[in-house]
Amino acid sequence: MRIHNLYEDAEGVSHFRNIEVEWDEIRQSNKFSARQSASGIVFRETTKDYTVDWHPAPRRQYVINLDSAVHITAGDGETRYIGPGEVVLVEDTTGKGHISKFVGGAMRRSIFVALD
Question: Concatenated DSSP letters for 84-112?
């Protein structure tokens, strides 16, 4: 399973990379990752007017798109389309951060899982 990872370098510039979930346990018809600690969960709805200019993430967190999509632009200029069902591990908590922009649909529902 691929996860988008938005991280920052030593100069505080954010970049994308792909990371693959490492499977800790494989059963006949299931795969499980190792358990990760989380400190909270937030459910979010955003309207089609949602655009946030340059901002760092408030904490390390997974953002899980339930429906609709978002364009995220990293500090290096790369823009990724994050579609329904996709996951982003956001780790650019200092520096310039990233831009988030709503794409299509009438409402975007997502889940934020805080890792701090």
Answer: TT-EEEE---SSS-EEEEEESSSEEEEEE
CA distance readout (Å), 75 to 68, 72, 80 = 23, 10, 12
Q: What CATH number is given for 2-20+38-114 in this structure? A: 2.60.120.10
Q: For each of the chain's 116 residues, which pLDDT tens digit applies?
A: 999 999 999 999 999 999 999 999 999 999 999 999 999 999 999 988 888 999 999 999 999 999 889 999 999 999 999 999 999 999 999 999 999 998 877 789 999 999 97
Q: Could you tell me which residues come within 8 angstroms of residue 29 by beta carbon, excluding any fewer than 6 positions away?
A: none
Q: 0.85 cut: is pTM over it?
A: yes
- For tokens 């346990």, name the residue: 25
User: What does the alpha-carbon distance between residue 102 and residue 87 come to, in Å, rounded to a whole number?
Assistant: 16
| Residue 85: C-alpha distances to residues 2, 94, 110 (Å) | 11, 27, 9
